[in-house]
Amino acid sequence: MTTATRRYGGFDTEAYDDSSRDHVDELASMRAALEQRIEQLLAGPERNDKLGAAMRASALSAGKRMRPLLLILVARDLGCNSPALIDVACAVELVHAASLILDDMPCMDDASLRRGKPAIHVQFGEDVAILASVALLSRAFGILAQAQDITHATRSRLVAALAQTVGDQGLVRGQFEDLHGGARTPEQIATTNELKTGLLLGVAVDMASIMCHADERVAQQLRAFALAAGQAFQIKDDLLDGPGNDSAVTGKDVGKDVGKATLINTLGQDEAKRRLLACLHEADRCLGAAIGAKGRTRGFVASLFAQGAKKRPASELKPEAPVARELRVAELRV
Predict the structure, then answer these.
(1) What DSSP state is assigned to residue 7?
(2) Does residue 1 lie within any of the structural domains?
(3) Where would a tag sit more exposed on the chain, N or C end, judged by fewer CB atoms within 10 A?
(4) pLDDT tens digits along 278-330
(5) Which domain holds residue 291?
């Protein structure tokens, strides 16, 4: 049965459709390799105690592995196939896992669910959760420090990029502003979203360009892509937190953003969806400028936004204006 081409803010998902066997096999293989390597990296003598179990539960829980996959795909699109890529990607994923532990803590976002399972502090206690987060961060930097097939200069740049992303001008600052920012303008909210979501995507592509020794023009386009994509993912996340969504489907608590300064609460759903679409267009433009029209990364990003979209036969689709069609598509859940 023929299906209509689906476009997400410029990303053509038809060319990289979820039903493509090559696409499914490639990503499944990459995810399996990442998870196997994380298993190895967290296989120290403490793996079976409560702290080790918490670290493993966070780092190996079900997830899209979006950031490490993005890093590897961008690097490959730029012509780099260094064996060190997987370790660099795992370091980014451990930082992401550590940040999620802290985000869910009662003193932070107070979430009890993460990826369909009890949050780490619910499973292991708040004390163990905090220690597991610190341990994952330490392990991430240790992985970069010991990665093979990387020059000393490149390794230093990777460590510096990741440290800046985590610190008081990065993820920490974003979470602080989210908790203590009070009433904010849409621009201030976007800045917080950039710190909370865009920067970790940004460091993934930045570290890919460092590994590939990409020129500054390419690096700047990749950073711009990551910031726009991060805004889009944050708006999507806020939409999923809204009324009518089910935590059993989303895999996390819903309703946590009630009363918070989000673009949804500040501008309303319609304007937030328009901004989502604009972010997707900008992300696609910048990514295309960095790696070209045929890069595998573009298809991967398209597939992330296409997840959850129900296909319909072309015969069932009514003609509609392009903007209306894309706004409708933007409403679909990730």
Answers:
(1) E
(2) no
(3) N
(4) 999 999 999 999 998 777 898 888 888 775 444 434 333 333 333 333 433 33
(5) 7-330
